[in-house]
Write a structure and sequence with these properties.
Radius of gyration of chain A: 19 Å
Number of helices of chain A: 10
Largest sheet of chain A: 7 strands, parallel
Distance between the termini of chain A: 39 Å
Strand order of the largest sheet of chain A: 6-5-4-9-12-14-15
Oligomer: homodimer
Shape of chain A: globular
Number of strands of chain A: 15
Helix content of chain A: 25-40%
Strand content of chain A: 15-25%
Chain lengths: 256, 256
DNA sequence: CAGAAATTGCCACAAAATGCCACATCGGCG
DNA sequence: CGCCGATGTGGCATTTTGTGGCAATTTCTG
């Protein structure tokens, strides 16, 4: 049982920062099995490098001073924006696409604002509202019970609504990617719903920003065998990359 | 043990503020699991930064321009708020209610923010987002094609989603009231959908602010015979009042 | 409209969590 | 062996949060 290297600890901290926008000393100390003092020293190091912002009790994303818009959207915003732009480039006029809920797919929605002649199906309230307010995209909202965390609809009604559509492209966000390269999700229902979304369309793209790598969430995600592409903002760690290659999932890197 | 970071608490407050325009100390304290005093201190901090405006019992958003729908909401905002409060007083714990789309029903949603143990069915994106961001109300979104003007779902999917619910109260906004006292709507589809909503519930309330009186919109609105009440902010002109009385529609006047 | 009741604001102090520093401990390495 | 860097420990200062009392405000009621 060797203690984790300082580097990988700080790496973990940065990922957590990207993912959540803020981290607490106590929680990190518990998770990483080291003393709070060590975490504090790590945070101080990162702060000296300008990669984190110290606040009482923990650290926050460097940019966290300003944005009043959705907090999670700002987490790793540049990476997600790049993924969004890349994903948008696969959408052609006349297509019908599904956008899953989540901050990465919201970034894709931003990238679609200028488009027309496309139809977007989504269960995400912010995506639907964004597109109907500031674009000419035709929006179909998938109804259902609203999960306040995701600000999106889930449940039987959402699933059955999916049945009625012919869909060209499907864009799915991923909760996490285990170190073994397995895709994971937060809840059983969400996973099932994403699976149905994938089956509803011709081509499936998965959107994964680098803060998701090696993050474990509880539920294994069911996928379809054919994945048109896995859009990332940074190359994944080797082990994950190999797992993707073994399943013949093309990894598409979006450049900022 | 692990206290959530102060900064994420304030982030949450800003989000709620953004969605609802105003937040209350008590509700935030309860939702975030901290004492009211702490919330007060947070609000004071935000106010010092110019990011919130303190008011008795909570804080309000600093005057920020908000797009389309807010503009319409601003038309006769006080009257609509009064109607919303009055309408909310009919909603009891445990009830399932339908909220139609529109600025007046949005005002009702604002009035429901502090409530819990109620379920709201709505086809309106802003209402769903407001309630899921700043209240403990359970929200079911009725899916369908989004009409950018109303920022709400309409269509076959919306209608069929209605089938599955048992509803206590239905709150419907009205497009206009002709000088003859006839209720009118903007489109055939919207009218039909509102009719279905009415039939789905036990009691139907119509929300009419005085700017709707003697305004003609193109489509005659189908109603159900029994209307539990017609909530207004000012008494209607005599001819309209007579027409309402003839149909035995109780007129309920909301006071500011 | 007045007075009561409930809610909220405000202040001071106590309790808890965190920050910070000095020093001890551990393990590798020349 | 002794040096060095990294980490843990403990004590104390600082910050944050909770609590209770009381004044001010709002709301209810007759």
């Amino acid at each position: 049982m060797n203690r984790p290297l300082a580097i990988s600890r700080q790496d973990h901290i940065l990922n957590a920062l990207d993912a959540a926008g803020a981290v607490s000393v106590s929680l990190l100390a518990e998770r990483l099995g080291v003393s709070r003092e060590t975490i504090r020293r790590d945070l101080k190091t990162l702060a000296d490098q300008g990669r984190a912002n110290l606040v009482h009790g923990g650290a926050a994303r460097t940019a966290t001073a300003e944005p009043s818009l959705a907090a999670r959207q700002a987490a790793n915003a540049p990476g997600k924006a790049a993924i969004g732009r890349k994903a948008a480039s696969f959408v052609e006029d006349g297509m019908v696409v599904i956008l899953d809920s989540g901050s990465t797919t919201l970034a894709l929605a931003y990238a679609l604002v200028e488009r027309k002649d496309i139809t977007v199906l989504t269960n995400s309230l912010p995506i639907a509202l964004l597109l109907c307010r500031s674009s000419d995209v035709k929006v179909m909202m998938l109804g259902g019970e609203i999960d306040p965390n995701d600000e999106a609809a889930f449940g039987i009604d959402t699933l059955s609504a999916l049945e009625h559509f012919r869909v060209d492209l499907v864009f799915i966000g991923v909760g996490g990617v285990s170190p073994e390269g397995e895709l994971t999700d937060y809840s059983r229902l969400a996973s099932e719903q994403r699976h149905r979304m994938m089956k509803a369309g011709q081509k499936v793209f998965l959107l994964v920003d680098h803060s998701k790598f090696e993050r474990r969430t509880p539920v294994k995600m069911a996928t379809v065998s054919r994945i048109a592409g896995l859009i990332v903002d940074k190359p994944p760690p080797r082990r994950i990359a190999q797992a993707f290659a073994a399943r013949r999932w093309p990894v598409i890197e979006a450049k900022a």
